[in-house]
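Quick entry between incubations.
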Amino acid sequence: MYKVSHKRIFEVPKLMVGLDTETTGLGERAQPITYGLIVYRNGSPVDKIDYDVDQDRTNSFIKSLTGGVPVWQSNKTNDSFVVYPSERYKGSDGRPFVEPDASRINGWTDDMLRSSRDGKPILHMPGDSFRYPPAVPAGTGLSRMLTQLAHLQKQGATFVGANTGYDYRLMTDLYAGLHNGLPIAHSGFDPLSANNIDVIAHDLTMRGDPTRMSSSGKLVPDRRSQEKLAIAYGVPYGAHKAYGDASTSVEIAKRQIAVNRGELELP
Amino acid sequence: MKRSAPIVFNSIKAAYVEPTADEYDEARTTDLDPQTFDKATYHRIRKLGVSHSDIINSNKSGVSLEDLETALENNNGDYTKALDEAHGYDNYYKQQINYNQGLSRFDKNFAGDLAKKFTQDRHDKAVSILFGHQMALRNAPEDWHTGWGTDQYGVDASTRKSGQTWLMRQCAKLVPSLGARINDTAFDSTMVQHNYSSIDPEFQSRYHSMVDHLLKHYSYSMVTSGTLKDYKTNLRKHNIVLSLAPNMFYPTNYTPEVSEG
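Done. Structure below.
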């Protein structure tokens, strides 16, 4: 299984990468629809290097106004983009790509995905700070994400997320499906050997692996969701936007490490 | 007019440097793969304060420009530390090559067959289609873009055209003969591949279909690479295709820093 640490972590990794996917649902046929990735070096988010040339031109491009909201522009380190899911996994029962339950959580609908596919810059939700550029197909999006992750794994990155195993499983299944069953590690990124911090699992470890009684009467781990952790640690919540949630996870991890070091109280 | 310095964490401040034509030439000839040499990457590294001779030494030691740049960013521009880190990336690539060589015979044949099946002719044709698409968008009269260009994305025509020229140069790295056509000004609307009037349910616009074929081709070429040089060259070509991928409608990932113009 994926290498999720069950030890308390006391040092902020030099290179931390928040990652998250928003998906069409939670079931077997779920696929990523947005990927988000944010890079932190020495505990701080990395912005692009300021080359100090043509800055006004760059800005006019990045901040080009479409209804007052700029279109997201990826840089060499941070990325966020939409993919149009593969019909191959949709089935022929006429159900939408984005299951209603998932749509209620992440705000995406089939209509939004189609508009994005057809070239519209999509504003995910009112009040968002950027519009997504047009969607790319599922296979292209997966290649883009895995290439970025491989590039970061090569540098010794620690990947941070909430339920990262779920994101990895989706990517692993999709990669195999699109590449005749090849293991995902052939992409250059190997989730099995990646260093990971799953903030939800880390929280359980920090609290001594508490349990609770489930509705079916079984003892289950008393997990706190990413949203609950964000509230507990006073971290801005990404509200189920891939890029925002990726950032939230890293900010939670930083505070968890501070707790382990005795610099903060466990909330 | 320059704006005031932005508040940027972990940012390296770059200096103004304009390399000479001779320096570019030497950097190209000593590069990992002169055909896919990227002037803009070389220029950015120089702006980070690295001398031409240090870059040449790095090239000669087998480090790719893009790996040197990444390692410089990780080491606050310190060349010696960066070169050391960049050589460490080779260990990662070697592990990858070893892992790929451990593929089952079935998987290896599958990857090898696919890499071979995508003949040079098919490869060149796919790249030419992407090149033609970007050229047509760049050369189209302004009113043709109504509904596709400025209206939706807020990108001024001059920036859009620079971006499309950059994408054409990216294509020419994969098929060098295309380089001779970068300055063509003719507009041929039949080369545009994003006509969605007959969109099929698999989202296979011709543009995306060509990108998909090329990505798979280079991905399988990486899987079957037996040497570091081959692996890194195929990775670079794979990344060139990825740079083309999201730009069917407009150059979404273009900034002046990537321009080789």
